[in-house]
Amino acid sequence: MAQDAPHGGLSIRWGSFSPLELARFKELLEKPVRLKPATVYGALVIRPREGKSYLFPKPKHETPILLGEWWDTNPIDVVREATRTGATPNISDAYTINAQPETKIVPIDSGETNLLRVVNAALNQPLFFKVANHKLTVVGADASYTKPFITSVLMLSPSQTTDVLIRGDQPPSRYYMAARAYQSTQNAPFDNMTTTAM
Fold first, then answer.
1. How far apart (Å, rounded) are the C-alpha atoms in residues 177 and 151?
2. Which has the closest alpha carbon to 119: 179, 45, 166, 65?
3. How many Å apart are CA 160 and CA 119, to the nearest integer?
4. Which part of the chain is the Plastocyanin-like domain (predicted)?
């Protein structure tokens, strides 16, 4: 495993490990962990085994896109209150892309194909995801390959992941990507905001 993976993700290497690497991994697993609520944020990225390739053309770059929520309160308290009362959880204060409530830039060069690993890390909210003027080729969902298909919009349930190829086939410019809530129940409160990136 490597913590210095691109874009801050965790990279998993398949194959044999040295006795020192195995001992270090065992030490990490046995170490007591104390985490503060809502402080761990990232994507677990699984790549093909060494010497193997994807079932689709290799992308130029891979970028995790984490769709999440911003809370001005402790999200653990939100879950506890919903569990205690049996009501729906309070709504978040904002949605985020890669932990930023404001615009974040994800560069894609003209003519290249990149892989976006889109993750819905929201607590309890299905989210729509779209990149302006671009088609997305879905090639995987929840760590499994899919038969590729083209769409312009994704809908992800909480904790769902979707791997999509995006091609820089539009005139060079800045194109927004956006995430917005899916409202499935009338008169139920939900965060009616949109988060964006470029």
1. 14
2. 65
3. 6
4. 62-197
Q: In this structure, are residues 125 and 193 in contact, taking their beta carbons and an 8 Å threshold?
A: no
Measured CA distances, 136 to 14, 76, 112, 118 (Å):
28, 34, 13, 11
Lowest mean pLDDT among 16-20, 62-66, 177-181, 187-191: 187-191
**What does the domain layout of the chain look like in residue ranges?**
6-46, 62-197
Edge-to-edge order in the sheet of strand 127-131: 153-156, 127-131, 177-181, 194-197
Antiparallel, parallel or unpaired: β 44-46 and 10-12 = parallel
Structure tokens at 102: 């404001």
Per-residue pLDDT tens for 36-50? 445 456 777 888 888
Whether 9 shows a pLDDT value over 70: the answer reads no
| CATH architecture, domain 62-197 | Sandwich (2.60)
DSSP states of 167-194: E--S-SS---EEEEEPP-STT------E
Q: What is the identity of the amino acid at 47?
A: R
CA distance 90 to 74: 11
Rounded-to-integer distance, Cα 124 and Cα 82, Å: 11
